[in-house]
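Final report, closing paragraph on structural work. Over the funding period we assembled a curated collection of sequence-structure pairs, and we close with a single example.
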Amino acid sequence: MSINVGDRIPDGKLQIMGDNGPEDVTTTQLFSGKKVVLFAVPGAFTPGCSMTHLPGYVVNADKLKAKGVDTIACVAVNDAFVMDAWGKAHNAEEIHMLGDGNGDFTRALGLELDGRGFGLGMRSQRFAMVVDDGVITHLQVEEGPGVEVSAAEAVLALL
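Its predicted structure, as stored:
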């Protein structure tokens, strides 16, 4: 069952790269008292994610923040090392690059994607959400391949 608008983000942990390696960050730390745009990709360094999805948020970070967004975060079922390297490769300094290595957070959202047919294992569906103080106010899940409803420009239009 997938999470919906009006639902609270589930409790959980993700990882972000710190000065001394991966550090746990809780969903409470990420979302409490903040307006957050969280977008998810099936995998770091994959074509659509690297050519369109992440770059759109990099170039629109200032516009999102001007609309009252406190934090922009990207999550994938990849480890913190991969997410950090991918963020650096795309100059994503304004974006929290979050690793959901085991897919626990993605599974708690009910937004997992079975990519085993492509040799990817279990991943995340491509989506974007706006979360205000832990409550989802907008949720855009891609119905098929491509980056449309979860693109930075589509999220900007919602704010």
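Helices lie at 27-31, 47-59, 61-66, 80-89, 104-109, 152-158. The chain has six helices and nine strands. We thank the funder for supporting this effort.
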